[in-house]
Amino acid sequence: MLRISARSVRAHRARMALSVLVVALGVGFVVGTLVLSATIDAAFTGLFTSGAADVTASPRAAFAVEVEDQAISGAVATVPATAVAAVAAVPGVAAAHGEVATQDVTVVDAGGHAVGPSSGAPTLGYNWYPRAHPIATLRTGRAPTGPGEVVLDAPSAAAAHLVLGAPVRLITPAAATPATLVGLADPGPANPGVGLVFLDTPTAQAALLGQPGRFTAVTADAVPGTADAAVAPAVQHALGPAVTVATREQQASSAAARVGAFLSTVTDALLGAGGVAVLVGSFLIVNTFTLLVAGRTRELGLLRAVGARPGQVTGMVLGEAVLVGVLGASVGLGAGIGLCAALEAALRGFGVDLSAVGLSIPASTVPAAYLLGVGVTVAAAWLPAGRAGRAAPTAVLREAAAPTEDGAGRGRTVAGAAVLLVAAGALLTAALVVPHTGLTVGAVLFAVGVAASLVGLVLAGPALARTLVACLSAGYRRLFGTVGALARGNTTRHPRRTATTAAALAVGVALVTGLGTLASSLDTSITRDIAGSTGADYVLSGRGGQPLPPQVTDTVRALPEVATLTRQRYAPADLGGSQVSVSGVDTATLDTTTRPQYVAGDTSALTQGGIDVDQATAAADGLTLGSPVHIVFLDGTPADLTVGAISRPPVGGGKDGSTFQVSLDTLSRYQPLTKDFTVYLGAAPGAAPALGDALHQALTDAPQVTIENRADHQNALRGQVALVLDLLYGLLALAVVIAVLGVVNTLGLSVIERRREIGLLRAVGATRAQIRGLIRLEALAVAVHGTALGLVLGLGWGVSGQRLLVGYGVTALSVPWATLAALALGTALVGLLAAIIPARRAARTDLLTALIAV
């Protein structure tokens, strides 16, 4: 039977080609993700391994937090200088040093232009001290020895045309420091494009941290022959529970994960593309094997007649699926590695050089590729293989190539209807219960609803196809005569084939419709939220989420064009096991600049030390005015506050990641080192037109500051959403392409299966043009049917998703009707285009060959 499977795949290789292609697409994107992730991890691990000390002691955080969330506060956790001496006295430690390290550094040349990696990778700032494992070595010049001296990595300096003696400025949330370039450092081959800047220790403490006499960590070099793992517990004992101690390998892995996160969007996109390809492609594979089994009824019946058992026939078809999966996985494995190599070369053009480590292929890549490729193909072919095993031996006596009954049975239809009802109930419940149970429960219900709707679509698909296609093509006879009637009959006579072909298109359209509805709702909500809550004429913020140095606020405050100034700072905190963000604002001008939309209480309560909680969080946690709120900040500082106001959540706010608002004085009481993250400015009467020019002139020497008027600020927020949506729409375009391949594949197999039918039509006088029209009309009916199902599913997903995110400020439901109309017309056109090749093949069918086809 295995030999028969192999011969069958060879005999039907043209029919299997698209299935192999779809499997290869899915596997290729997943392999590319695995390889690129491993390569990035190896590059950054190599960077930090080369510079990590044997043992490093860092301040302990009260809870785990993403590095981006910690950086927005501008406060850097530190240890006192006495910790260095304590570590140096530990047995097994050869030397101990205090380290200053931060990644919130902007280097500016004399012309006010930023100096650093063109890739967007961070510039890391360090103090220079003798290291057993140096981060970089001097290429030319000397080490910094006092105030006003700096060493830069040579690639960044060369890109900015800086030479020794050139004046530069270092800008951090702590200070803006003028300096002279006294040395160029070679970052070594392990550096993937990260910028480096070095200062002497006292200057680094003042310029990078704003905390003289403090360090971000204490590094220890172990005595030769002493294991790092043996020294680490002793260092922990010497410093106590206030610090976290990590060996060189542990520190390198942690740092690599944090700094490498800026490339995670690429890997997420690849993984999403692979998931979309696998999901939509599975429908194509199902249809391929369904049609192949249906077209080989006589062959399978002959096997049964000569003694093949049902299990052997089923195994034969599954063997074919295994071979298709192996071929697709093999092609996808090579394509994925090639894709990663192309991305690595593209990243090198943007300044991210991963060539030092080469492509890192994890050991799990090859097994994962074949497991995915074979697993998806076998799973998709399982039901058609089962039907093949049930082929009756008497089928060899029948002339019909395929049964006319196509699986739209009553039991299947009832089961599909029941599952669709479950899906509708889950989506409806998700939309209604979120304000009372929080996002987590609603998300689970939403996921159940989406999954159930897909299952219901598959189960009830034949019944829907038989009914809806008949309705959608009701005008075929009147418009196209006999050809139209034949096309309508063909699509309704085989509802399973029609349903499976349309399902792939329906999923693609549903994804586009659902995400389009969410995108439109989010865009409308952002526009309405900013229009109603932003009274500032201009907004200042740091590029890349970097807090603003105090000089920026002081500079703009002195401008005569500025009438009101509202500072906003952030600090991560923990509320009952959930990470939240506490925002501190100037309450004196809050009502005129950010205009919080209170549903209870007012700004005066914040002035008196109260906390403003968003409405969704208050409902989920049962908070009312006067309720106590206990939070713990990242450094372990506790705060017991009282709810003084409840407000509508802004876009992005809500339970699980909420932003709580307090006065700036209250936040400074618990977190005095936080820096301004956003500054809202109101213009003096009549000075609004001149304020923009005044700000740009006053902040010429601060290129890290983003200056936005109200419209720019709104567009920037909408642009962030648009960037993500463009990526998602790219993935969805892949889904539509695969769905179109499914239509092409189904029509092509249908033409092969119906050679005798087409021959008979030609024999009774059908012209080639009529045969082409027949195939095109069938494709159009399938495309319109799939589009209609996708629009209904997508609208259900989009509306439920919007209601799910009401607590996150997505309060406006906006359906992009124009986009959906264009989508519907586009898919109809795609259906016609997909039929071009199959229709041409059908029209060229040789009449005599078709009539004698077995």
UniProtKB/TrEMBL annotation:
<feature type="transmembrane region" description="Helical">
    <location>
        <begin position="727"/>
        <end position="752"/>
    </location>
</feature>
<keyword id="KW-1003">Cell membrane</keyword>
<feature type="transmembrane region" description="Helical">
    <location>
        <begin position="414"/>
        <end position="434"/>
    </location>
</feature>
<keyword id="KW-0472">Membrane</keyword>
<feature type="domain" description="ABC3 transporter permease C-terminal">
    <location>
        <begin position="274"/>
        <end position="391"/>
    </location>
</feature>
<dbReference type="InterPro" id="IPR050250">
    <property type="entry name" value="Macrolide_Exporter_MacB"/>
</dbReference>
<feature type="transmembrane region" description="Helical">
    <location>
        <begin position="359"/>
        <end position="383"/>
    </location>
</feature>
<feature type="domain" description="MacB-like periplasmic core">
    <location>
        <begin position="498"/>
        <end position="690"/>
    </location>
</feature>
<comment type="similarity">
    <text>Belongs to the ABC-4 integral membrane protein family.</text>
</comment>
<feature type="domain" description="MacB-like periplasmic core">
    <location>
        <begin position="17"/>
        <end position="236"/>
    </location>
</feature>
<feature type="transmembrane region" description="Helical">
    <location>
        <begin position="269"/>
        <end position="294"/>
    </location>
</feature>
<protein>
    <submittedName>
        <fullName>FtsX-like permease family protein</fullName>
    </submittedName>
</protein>
<dbReference type="InterPro" id="IPR025857">
    <property type="entry name" value="MacB_PCD"/>
</dbReference>
<dbReference type="InterPro" id="IPR003838">
    <property type="entry name" value="ABC3_permease_C"/>
</dbReference>
<feature type="transmembrane region" description="Helical">
    <location>
        <begin position="773"/>
        <end position="797"/>
    </location>
</feature>
<feature type="transmembrane region" description="Helical">
    <location>
        <begin position="817"/>
        <end position="837"/>
    </location>
</feature>
<feature type="domain" description="ABC3 transporter permease C-terminal">
    <location>
        <begin position="731"/>
        <end position="846"/>
    </location>
</feature>
<dbReference type="Pfam" id="PF02687">
    <property type="entry name" value="FtsX"/>
</dbReference>
<feature type="transmembrane region" description="Helical">
    <location>
        <begin position="315"/>
        <end position="339"/>
    </location>
</feature>
<feature type="transmembrane region" description="Helical">
    <location>
        <begin position="498"/>
        <end position="519"/>
    </location>
</feature>
<dbReference type="Pfam" id="PF12704">
    <property type="entry name" value="MacB_PCD"/>
</dbReference>
<feature type="transmembrane region" description="Helical">
    <location>
        <begin position="440"/>
        <end position="460"/>
    </location>
</feature>
<keyword id="KW-1133">Transmembrane helix</keyword>
<keyword id="KW-0812">Transmembrane</keyword>
